[in-house]
Design brief:
With 430 residues, the chain is of the alpha+beta class. It folds into two domains: 310 residues; 79 residues. Helix content is 15%, strand content 34%. It is built from six helices and 26 strands. Strands 3, 6, 22, 23, 24 and 25 form a six-stranded mixed β-sheet that branches. The protein has a six-stranded antiparallel β-sheet with strand order 7-14-11-12-13-8, with no helix packed on it. The protein has a six-stranded mixed β-sheet with strand order 15-26-21-16-18-17. Strand 11 and strand 12 form a beta hairpin. 32% of the residues are buried.
Length: 430
């Protein structure tokens, strides 16, 4: 019987386990020696879910919930001349969210994890949490920009003769029209008023896959002709240019653009976040702003932001300036167009499924999988599920995250001017 002590290390050269391991795990071995630590990857901050108001709800997958928001009664400064005042009404708008499920998973072989001096299982869980945060961040960003960056596009195909077909860069904002406060699909019965190259027209149908608008009146089109919905959200560009297509490399970010965004929000009575609006800007936007004399002068009076301490450039000009590495861009020809956004309160609503963490309650199997609610992104929680091994060797553990819900964007179409989506302004620059 061999009673010699167990060696302090595992000789991979003698016991050829390395060749049986998955390729990602073999990659962390160097000549039979395992790395003692795992280093963190480059990680963005998940800021877009953080600006959403949470409205949990219960429903089935695919269900749609409609939210209702009332408008205001117009002021009436005229004295009453009869015995009774004239009755008035107020507008009502509706907007919806759809219950969908999102998630991802990773399998960990606990035998292989035990061979690493830094737990691969813990690293797998951490990496999965990052994946959840990035996913929710991009879902929230997509909803936000589809609303506030929509309704304004340009023709991508020239039509040498008059045509009712218009191929555009993006159809967001052209899909529906408000009828009695309810969004309905555009149609010949419910057309959307637009301008094409500054000339009034209508959109009567939209092909999302082909990015094609059907116009009510045939027109001759050139590439770059602006197509703007009558209810398009207000956005800001240097020189008041119509769309991102018209921007050149010299159309850089300036403090003036962001002050215009703040002016717009204030004129529409958009509530702020603690007295300040929030500008989500990319590193490229930040670099351009520090080349602007007006911005640098305003920054001299900055105060620290109590909300975005780690990411804040400061508070000045009525704005909390926040670095956001996930701020989107769009490439138009040779120009990369930056798209920072200035937001007010209530711009986005998170509508998660209510009770996600207690789905197994009352089944008698509550303690079999480990289900915890974690917040990989501020303002959004996901279910982290660790399933016990299902294989005969009891080695393969599955870890999964799941989030059920949607992000919604109120339009505020029944207050203020004719533009929809008034609680934010997209700033576009080269």
């Amino acid at each position: 019987m061999n009673t010699s002590p167990r060696p302090a290390w595992f000789r991979l050269g003698r016991h050829d386990v390395r060749s049986t391991l998955p390729a990602p795990l073999r990659a962390i071995m160097q000549n039979g020696v395992l790395d003692r630590v795992f280093l963190d990857a480059l990680l963005p901050d998940f800021l877009y879910p953080a600006i959403a108001d949470s409205e949990p709800w219960a429903g089935g997958l695919g269900d749609t919930k409609t939210f209702t928001r009332t408008g205001l009664i117009a002021p009436n400064p005229v004295p009453i001349t009869g015995s009774d005042p004239t009755p008035h009404t107020y507008g009502v708008e509706q907007w919806s969210v759809t219950m969908d499920q999102y998630g991802d998973t990773i399998d960990t072989n606990l035998l292989h994890s035990a061979m690493t001096l830094a737990s691969k299982f813990l690293r797998d869980v951490q990496t999965l949490g990052i994946n959840a945060g990035q996913t929710l961040n991009q879902i929230a960003r997509a909803r936000l920009y589809a609303a506030y960056g929509g309704g304004r596009t340009w023709a991508t195909t020239a039509q040498g003769s008059a045509s009712t077909t218009c191929v555009v860069a993006d159809v967001s904002g052209f899909l529906s029209v408000m009828v009695n406060g309810v969004p309905v699909a555009v149609s010949p019965t419910n057309p959307l008023s637009v301008t094409v190259a500054g000339v009034a027209n209508t959109v009567t149908a939209v092909n999302v896959g082909a990015k094609t608008l059907t116009l009510g009146t045939a027109v001759t089109q050139a590439i770059g002709d602006a197509v703007v919905a009558a209810n398009a959200p207000v956005s800001v560009r240097p020189g008041s240019k119509a769309t991102a297509f018209n921007l050149t490399g010299s159309d850089v970010a300036t403090f003036k653009l962001f002050r215009a965004a703040v002016t717009r929000l204030r004129k529409q009575n958009v509530p702020s976040n603690g007295g300040y609006y929030t500008a989500h800007i990319s590193p490229d936007t930040e670099a351009a702003l520090f080349d602007d004399a007006d911005f640098k002068q305003a920054a001299q009076g900055r105060v620290d932001s109590p909300i975005y301490r780690d990411l804040s450039i400061g508070r000045f000009g009525g704005i909390d300036w926040v670095r956001n590495l996930e701020s989107p861009t769009v490439t138009v020809g040779s120009v990369t167009v930056q798209r920072p956004i200035v937001t007010g309160a209530g711009v986005l609503v998170s509508a998660p499924f209510e009770g996600m963490g207690s789905l197994l309650a009352g089944t008698g199997t509550e303690d079999v999988p480990d289900i915890r609610m974690i917040g990989p992104a501020t303002g959004a929680q996901v279910a982290l599920i660790v399933r016990p091994p299902q294989d005969r060797l009891q080695q393969q553990v599955s870890t999964t995250w799941s989030w059920v819900g949607d992000f919604g964007v109120p339009s505020d179409s029944v207050t203020g001017d004719s533009a929809q989506f008034k609680r934010a302004v997209v700033v576009e620059h080269a």
